[in-house]
Write a structure and sequence with these properties.
alpha/beta; Enzyme I, Chain A, domain 2; TIM Barrel; 8-stranded parallel β-sheet; binds phosphoenolpyruvate; binds magnesium ion
Length: 576
């Protein structure tokens, strides 16, 4: 039976393919049916994972360091007991054998059943053991996949480009792993438009939709699905006529993209000769390929924290240095702005879970860096060393106070001093900038322009914190409004103040890649945009067709307007 589900499109385009269900974000697990002859092998794989985890835990217990707290041994023993219980070590095998499903799925199904039982128990102590069950299951999942948080590939990697991934929720760490795959699209029931999950989705340049609420429940494995990422609509089991219509639209969309590619080497300048710098946002060093293919004139934001996700330990100085050096070298002398790690909130390190009540207001980004100076200095050293191989700028996220900027600058000086003492070369002209994404920093910009070499506006967080909208929460996603008068006046003021102080100012939030806002930002005085590579050519096309002199009066009127409808009408006029 055909039906449609509506959500929020976060990455445009049309995908047509077969549904592939993955389970809840906590343990994103693929579900696939095995041919009968592979069932015994799958059961053996499961048994082997249990055996390996048991050996791992026993080794931990037998080598408890003298300094470990006394409850550590009891904790390991409890995990061994949970692992040994037949509900975890035997029932999933029965599920594999009766349902012919993959081991991860069987384990997940059984874990969900166990957790539901725990919820019914009245005893507080027993209820708290839920977390232990999850931890043990996660260990087994890791043993099964060989990598923490890894989503096992579907049976045949060849067919990936036909798969529409459907999940209740995905973490940014999950989505960044999709870069190794070629899925046609992914859609989720939860998520906001500027959540890091959506941000990474855009960089994949595949249609994606969030906030569908019930897609995971309504759509079945392998069903034919059309995803219209531009309109935010999913069509399930479409009839022949609808399918033909969307195949045509998909073809037209691809033709448009191909035509746009011709602009790659064209300089981005308005009709009246104003040159604009269009740079790319990246998460991982390999994203540079896409940035260059789309004509980026630099990397305006390297979200370095993605190097810290999907792994057990932290990357050491050499590993980080190599990643930064590679990006700098691959960009061939063009500027590369590396943001110091913005961990916390929806990007917890080491695959952990956010534990604060309001993690976005908690120990995140520079706040976290300053609580662990040694870890921060390790990253700063790696960045400085890499600056010897290209043009690197250092960007500090989430500044709110002058003291944070001072402390960050002091630690950069310390890192430089250490390298000087060791005789390690680095670029002495490395520039240090700050992200303006906390309203306090935007309103008291004067204290930052005096200290920093450049600024970059992070509109994703600036909007989240100004309008009090959790960017990851789909229930308030409709309130996310870049055209809110408060946001427009903040952005215009930041650009004006920075210009007056002679401090270069960029914008690297998702607004930079939204073509409906390109002209408005241009008229506000923005000359450096940084966005996911997939949007670079669309934005360039708009700039090439713009006349700045004509835009300015309209933009000024928008700044004086508070009525929502009038604002939208003026924006339409600006874009006409
Ligand atoms: C922003 O907040 O706009 C930004 C670019 O940083 P992130 O999306 O990584 O928080
Ligand atoms: Mg931010």
């Amino acid at each position: 039976m055909s039906f449609t589900v509506h959500g929020i499109g976060v990455s445009g385009g049309i995908a047509i393919g077969h549904a592939h269900l993955v389970s809840h974000a906590k343990l994103e697990v693929a579900h696939y049916v095995l041919p009968p002859h592979q069932v015994a092998e799958e059961s053996a794989r499961f048994d082997d994972a249990i055996r390996r985890v048991r050996a791992e835990l026993e080794e931990l217990r037998d080598n408890v360091p003298a300094t470990a707290p006394p409850e550590f041994c009891a904790f390991i023993n409890l995990h061994l007991m949970i692992l040994g219980d037949s509900t975890l070590s035997a029932v999933p095998r029965q599920i594999i054998e009766t349902e012919h499903c993959n081991a991860e799925w069987a384990l997940k199904v059984q874990m969900d059943a166990l957790l539901a039982q725990f919820d019914e128990i009245d005893d507080g102590y027993m209820r708290e053991r839920k977390g232990d069950v999850i931890q043990v299951v996660e260990r087994v999942m890791r043993a099964l996949s060989g990598q923490p948080g890894y989503i096992p590939p579907p049976p045949s990697a060849d067919s990936e480009h036909n798969l529409i991934l459907i999940a209740r929720d995905l973490s940014p760490a999950d989505v960044v792993q999709f870069k190794q795959h070629q899925f046609a699209s992914f859609i989720t029931d939860l998520g906001g438009t500027t959540s890091h999950t959506a941000v990474v989705a855009r960089s994949l340049a595949i249609p994606s939709i969030v906030a569908l609420h019930s897609a995971r429940k309504l759509i079945r494995e392998n069903e034919l699905v059309i995803v219209d990422g531009t309109q935010g609509v999913v069509m399930v089991d479409p009839d022949q006529q609808v399918l033909a219509e969307y195949q045509l639209r998909q073809h037209q969309f691809e033709l448009e993209r191909r035509k746009l590619r011709r602009l790659r080497d064209t300089r981005a300048a308005t009709l009246d000769g104003v040159v604009v710098d269009l740079q790319a946002n990246i998460e991982l060093p390999r994203d540079v390929v896409q940035a260059r293919e789309n004509g980026a004139t630099g990397i305006g934001l390297f979200r370095s924290e993605f190097l810290f996700l999907n792994r057990d330990g932290l990357p050491d100085e050499d590993e980080q240095f190599e990643a930064y050096r590679k990006v700098a070298a691959d960009m061939d002398g063009m500027p590369v702005t590396i943001r110091t790690y913005d961990l916390g909130a929806d990007k917890p390190a080491n695959g952990g879970e956010p534990c604060a009540t309001n993690p976005a207001l908690g120990l995140r980004a520079i706040r976290l860096c300053l609580t662990e100076p040694q870890r921060f200095i390790t990253q700063l050293r790696a960045m400085l060393r890499a600056s010897h191989y290209g043009k690197i700028n250092i960007l500090i996220p989430m500044l709110a106070t002058a003291a944070e900027a001072d402390q960050a600058l002091a630690l950069i000086r310390r890192a430089r001093q250490g390298l000087d003492e060791e005789g390690v070369p680095y670029d002495r002209g490395v520039k240090v900038g700050g992200m303006i994404e906390v309203p306090a920093a935007a309103l008291a910009l004067g204290m930052f322009v005096r200290k920093l070499d450049f600024l970059s506006i992070g509109t994703n967080d600036l909007i989240q914190y100004t309008l009090a909208i959790d960017r990851t929460d789909d229930t308030v996603a409709h309130l996310y409004d870049p055209l809110h008068p408060a946001i427009l006046s903040l952005i215009a003021d930041i650009i004006r103040t920075a210009d007056r102080a002679g401090v270069p100012i960029a914008l690297c939030g998702e607004m930079a890649g939204d073509v409906s806002l390109t002209r408005l930002l241009l008229a506000f005085g923005l000359r450096q945009y940084s966005m996911h590579a997939a949007h670079l050519l669309d934005v360039k096309q708009v700039i090439l067709k713009s006349n700045l002199t004509q835009l300015k009066p309209l933009a000024r009127r928008m700044l004086r307007t508070t009525d929502r409808e009038k604002l939208h009408a003026l924006l339409d006029k600006l874009n006409a």
